[in-house]
Specification:
Number of helices: 16
Distance between the termini: 60 Å
CATH class of the largest domain: Mainly Alpha
Structural class: alpha+beta
Largest sheet: 8 strands, mixed
Helix content: 40-55%
Order of helices and strands: HHHHHHHHEEHEHEEHEHHEEHEEHEHEE
Number of domains: 3
CATH architecture of the largest domain: Up-down Bundle
Radius of gyration: 32 Å
């Protein structure tokens, strides 16, 4: 039983409130950094900030986000069933609990003075109040808030496909902003002492009231924090004393987890390697296990877990270790090897090992009539001609920026745009198709004396979402080293290639590919065909020869 809710809405609420507070902190630190320019520049930006944050709506949003995020943080701390965690998780937890102690003093001294006594808490007032007596506390507060925020953002963003490409820029911002913030704060603090005389804005007795309010606020939170820590320690002792269940790992140990502990926490508690990219937040499926015995006695998956399991098409006995809390003896086997990944280093993971979803362009090409042509050829000649054809076509595909997925007899499947924007991948596929037709003409000329008929080709191209991954990595054959594509986009592209036979054409592409690649419509215009597996017709464009393809903006090829 959890201290607070643990559904998907709670995760989303924690994320949204955290992003709101991060945005506030970001612009607050940016405002401090303007102290390197002038106090007037700091004050000008402050006026913009308070226009947003000090109206009733902005205040309500900040108060709600602050209290909600703090409550959810305490709840998460109370719900933890193990003290073992990565250093990032440990820092985020500790800093999240400590930030309010420093933040309450700061907020009371600034916003509290303004609300209670009408004090204009502009930068001149703030700098006189904070520099240099509160410089150390201010530095500590900036560090705690910023690193806590950045760690949280890292856990969220590292699963995004674009994160690796932009992580260097984000790291630079994460390092530079707090440094510039404190430099601006300290520079302005010295400047205000040199240029201004301090005018006490308080009436007699008001400063003591403000100090007493600070002390009360900090004491109340300290009492809440101490109670939470005491409750958590008592819960740990209670868990040790209770009769617990046993978890048996296939080809591994049998352990006794603490009551209420997730299976992933159990693995970490007993130093059992267990894959988990997202750190146990049900944002990936790498920690999944197959329950061999004891499945009937377990609680069914909640909404969060069920959503992930449905997305990967898991069998009924597959569960997420980060969500499963054993309540009876179970026998399990982790489904993904932990040696391939560690919870704190997704940047070192081959993303295709786990599978990614990305918008790509699929090209299928098939050599027409090759079986008939090769009937009277010697085996050596057949292999020679096929290698000539596949080798040249592969070069063309790779030169255009594509990836040769596989050969299927005399057919080729290629993927474009795996690490590129979708429109660039679509254009690359069209360039490859046009070049393939030209290469085919060249092959026909060089092999004219050896073939009874000319070689011809059918090419189908379609753009859409596909799952990219290494299939068969557990095999010792090495077949899993290649990346392949799965999904409806693959099926549609294959059907379009097959349809080239019906149209007696070299190339058929879908409407979405034409639009993304910027291709001029052929003379035949738009047509529609039914594709097996789709309920609605697919809009297509047909070229008798792929070399006739024209681009609307040929300069961007």
């Amino acid at each position: 039983m959890t201290v607070f809710g643990n559904g998907d809405y709670v995760r989303q609420l924690r994320l949204v409130t955290g992003l709101i507070l991060f945005t506030f902190a970001f612009f607050h630190l940016l405002n401090h950094a303007l102290g390197l320019v002038s106090i007037d520049a700091m004050e000008a930006m402050r006026q913009v900030r308070i226009a947003i944050t000090r109206n009733w709506l902005g205040t309500a949003i900040l108060l709600f986000s602050s209290f909600t995020h703090a409550i959810l943080g305490l709840s998460k701390f109370l719900n933890r069933r193990t003290w073992k965690m990565t250093w990032e998780q440990g820092w985020q937890l500790a800093s999240g609990l400590l930030i309010p102690l420093l933040m309450l003093r700061h907020v009371t001294g600034m916003r509290g003075a303004n609300e209670l006594f009408g004090v204009d808490d502009d930068y001149i007032y703030a700098l006189f109040a904070l520099w240099p007596s509160e410089a150390l506390n201010q530095t500590l507060l900036i560090s705690l808030v910023w690193i806590h925020s950045c760690v949280g953002l890292y856990f969220w963003l590292r699963l995004k496909p674009w994160f690796k490409n932009y992580s260097g820029y984000l790291y630079a911002i994460a390092i530079m902003l707090p440094v510039l913030s404190f430099a601006g704060f300290s520079s302005a603090g010295r400047m205000v002492r040199m240029l201004y005389e301090f005018e006490n804005p308080f009436q007699p007795g008001q400063i003591e009231q403000l100090k007493q309010l600070m002390k009360t606020n900090v004491s109340v939170y300290a009492a809440i924090l101490a109670s939470a820590i005491g409750f958590r320690l008592a819960r740990t002792v209670y868990d040790w004393m209770r009769t617990t269940v046993k978890v048996s790992y296939v080809n591994g140990p049998t352990v006794t987890p603490a009551p209420g502990q997730t299976l992933l926490e159990t693995s970490h508690s007993f130093n059992i390697p267990h894959a988990s990219i997202c750190g146990g937040k049900a944002r990936c499926s790498t920690c999944r296990v197959r329950v061999l015995d004891g499945l009937d006695g377990l609680e069914p998956p909640d909404q969060v877990e069920q959503k992930v399991l449905e997305r990967i098409g898991a069998m009924p006995n597959v569960r997420l270790a980060c969500q499963l809390r054993p309540c009876n003896d179970i026998n399990i086997v982790p489904l993904l090897p932990a040696k391939k990944v560690n919870a704190g280093g997704i940047e070192e993971v081959d993303k295709y090992f786990w599978g990614v979803e990305h918008k790509v362009t699929l090209l299928f090409a098939d050599l027409r009539g090759f079986t008939r042509i090769s009937e009277d050829q010697l085996p050596y000649d057949v292999v020679f001609m096929l290698n000539q054809y596949l080798g040249r076509m592969s070069e063309v595909i790779e030169d255009a920026g594509g990836y040769v997925d596989k050969f299927m007899g005399d057919g080729i499947m290629a993927i474009f745009g795996m690490d590129e924007p979708a429109n660039k991948g679509a254009r690359q596929a069209m360039i490859a198709a046009r070049s393939m037709s030209g290469v085919l003409d060249s092959l026909n000329m060089s092999l004219s004396g050896e073939l009874p008929d000319k070689l011809n080709i059918g090419i189908g191209i379609h753009t859409g979402e596909a799952i990219l991954g290494r299939i068969g990595v557990s095999s010792q054959s090495g077949a899993g080293e290649r990346i392949t594509a799965l999904g409806d986009t693959v099926n549609t592209a294959s059907r379009l290639e097959t349809a080239t036979k019906e149209f007696a054409a070299q190339l058929i592409i879908s409407q979405v590919t034409r639009q993304m690649a910027g291709v001029v419509k052929p003379e035949s215009g738009e047509q529609q065909i039914m594709v097996k597996g789709r309920s609605k017709p697919v809009c297509i464009y047909v070229w008798n020869r792929a070399t006739d393809v024209e681009f609307a903006d040929i300069s961007t090829e």
